[in-house]
Amino acid sequence: MIDYPLKKAFELFEPGPVLLLTTKQGEKSNAMTLSWHTLIDFTPIIAVVLSDGDYSFNTLRKTRECVLAIPNAEIIETVVSIGNCSGKEMDKFAELNLTTTEAECVKPPLIADALYNVECTVLDVSLANRYGMFVLEGLRAWENEKITDRRTFHAHGNGIFTLDGKDINLKRLMTKWPQFI
Amino acid sequence: MIDYPLKKAFELFEPGPVLLLTTKQGEKSNAMTLSWHTLIDFTPIIAVVLSDGDYSFNTLRKTRECVLAIPNAEIIETVVSIGNCSGKEMDKFAELNLTTTEAECVKPPLIADALYNVECTVLDVSLANRYGMFVLEGLRAWENEKITDRRTFHAHGNGIFTLDGKDINLKRLMTKWPQFI
Question: How many domains, chain B?
């Protein structure tokens, strides 16, 4: 994986793709699947919403760090399977088909099979009880430039997923946001 | 437009499409383009993130109601144009090519050209100053079943947008969420 500019990392989250979130407590790393997330700022600041029934919830609250990975369409079945089992009962990385590598700024692992990884620290846990929300700040971003299928995918929450289709360039209309075009 | 089951409305937001948000203050209706949003609960509860520079920000804080509309790929240029001008200086509905109709539970208008509209009340404004975040609850949902192109689109934040591609049915893997499949 190669360095990806942190200032462009918001562009990875804004389309709302399905993400993987990794955590680590003691020696145990875990991953969960997540599609409830939004940008809060461009730096990037990202809000993620977990259920307090998720095994990652308490780990994230306690350790205050995670990695957000953006998987591609090729590994969609693995990603959906990760969202349908619990780290409480198994070692997902051992049982499912994912390669991890060490992160630079945080203890949770990067997912080498993903298009991008963003190492994150938890800025704010005060919304965890009320909304299951954690406010994250990206510290370091990585790209796996060797993956040829660059399509991400989106969840409808009912077992149906939509793969990315074609891109449309409308930079000519982005008159209000010259800094991003 | 026909009734759309409110309990299925979360499925419209979870994929992270670009939305339109309408507000109304006094006699003036307005619309803005929005892609910073996430589900918080299935009922649906939705968090939207606005800039305090957005004309809609104070209107939403004051009036505490809005409509979230999900536009299709055919009107992408209109939607992007709405995100690149301000209701402070113009009547967007008069100058841009959008048809509105009256909502049932709230004063802001529905957008008849959109695939779906969800009438929302603001549950929580306490995060508006810190994160620009408003927590919304959907009250009533509508579908325009006559629109044939059902593709939504996603923003990368840099003038590039991705249209929906093909759908993948992975209900067989959704063992943890039997209530939704």
Answer: 1
Asked if B117 contacts B111 with a C-beta cutoff of 8 angstroms, the reply is: yes
Q: Are A122 and A65 in contact (CB under 8 A)?
A: yes
Residue with tokens 């209530």: B179
Nearest chain B residue (CA) to A74: B168
ipTM over 0.85: yes
- The pLDDT of residue B89 is 81
Query: Chain A: residue nearest B53 by CA?
Result: A176
CA distances from B77 to A35, A58, B20, B66, B167 (A): 26, 43, 13, 22, 24
Q: Which residues of B touch A75 (CB under 8 A)?
A: none
Residues of A in contact with B154 (CB under 8 A): 14-16, 154, 164
Give percent above pLDDT 70 in chain A: 98
- The whole model's pTM is what? 0.96
> Cβ A180–B173 below 8 Å, yes or no?
no
Give the range of the structural domain holding residue B35, as residue numbers without chain letter.
2-180
pLDDT in tens, A135-146: 999 999 999 999
pLDDT confidence of residue A42 = 95
CATH number at residue A150: 2.30.110.10
Place of tokens 């509905």: B93
